[in-house]
User: What shape does this take?
Amino acid sequence: MKESWIINRIGLVDFWYYDDQEFAFINGRMLLRGSNGSGKSVTMQSVVPLLLDGNMRPERLDPFGSRDRKMSNYLLEDGDGRDERTGYLYMEFWKPETKVYHTIGMGIRARRGKNLETWYFYISDGRRINRDFPLYKESDGKITLSRKELEYRLGSGGRVLVSQQEYMEYVNRQMFGFESVDEYRELIDLLIQLRTPKLSKEFKPSIINEILSDSLQPLSEEDLRPMSEAIENMDALSTNLSNKVNSMQAAEKIYRQYNRYNEYVLKEKAGYYISGMEDRKKLNKDIAKAKETLLSNAELKAGEEERKIRLDQERKVLENEKENLNASDAVSLKQREADVIARVEESRKNEQDKGRQLSTKQDKWREYEKHFKKADEQKEQFAEEIEESLQEMEEGLTVISFDEHSFFSRELQEHLEEEVSFDTHIVQVEKLTGKLEQGIGLLKDMEDRKKRKEELLQQYDKEKKFRSSIERVIMEEENNFQNLIQEQKEKMHEWNHKNLE
Assistant: This one.
């Protein structure tokens, strides 16, 4: 098991009311006792967590979280007569088994009316402050080292840093070994939460739970944005996909049913129309023929009526002659009477035949009129059915656009008496069908592209996770490398400590 670092002591040099003060730890623990206002909180907050990350924000210096205390107040106070002061804070760690010492700390230079100057240092060669590495020089008293003097004295046995962020990363890498600075920052936030006094409350497990929860680092917008965008994209893609699938299925159903319906209706109506037109032509021919026959029969009737009148006149003359000759030769008169009766009888038979023929013609005429009337009714019915079909097609155009429908409809209505060719209609319907199939193909292509996009996004997430894992491995190897260097240094310091020459 790898040996851990333990706090051995902390120190303050020319800081606040301290000239050069050390506080020793036993196995990493220390107990401070004193009355209220004696400086316990100020002393500890000036070291922990300040030396762990170098952050000097006012709310970090006050355990109650206020912004009243500033670092400059601990170096230059009103009425102390000094316009400039440089102080140091340090924390010494050690490993009991190997007796290796490392020290972290920071120097602060305050000048009245100017911003603070800060720098940070790390001693890694085993030298200890106030043992073999003083932070001041003797010249008419103790004068704390400047940053340049500290760098010169430290040499290759440590490092001096100016950036607070760089110092925090360096301390994490050398002392704690968290995989990222954010995880190290979470540790420091937890320490701040735990040090906050709860003087008016009991320290219950629920409060500890709240403190631990509050100490967790909130997820940033950059962390949440990919997840929220992915969820939104998934929801939007799922909704759009569902809508598109439903719309495409509905469009396909409408298209199939509408196409089948139009084909059936057009075929049926066209058949009715063509059959009606043929029946109408036949009826027109029969009517014309019946009219000719009727005219011929009317002429025959008129001729027979004239003949009847003429025969009646002849009969009257013959009857007169019969009366005049009643006393003449009886045989010849009898013969003439027989002839006249035969001629009259023949005329009656002819009249009866012509009457029967006229009745037959009149029956045929009435039959032709009925047929013609039925043909007109069928024609009107066909026209109404065509009109209803056209209206149904108009209603169907709310779903599918077919600009040629109005032209075809108007042309059909204007030429109902004529035979109509549907070749152009079929061509236009085939064009519309092609466009619909092309649209369905585009929709399917769009869905394929969306699926491809999803696959690429998933692949991107996998690559991103793989890259993160590689970066984590690199960081772990770097930490292992630093640990190996540190172990070698500790072994050298241990060997040097045991060396008697």
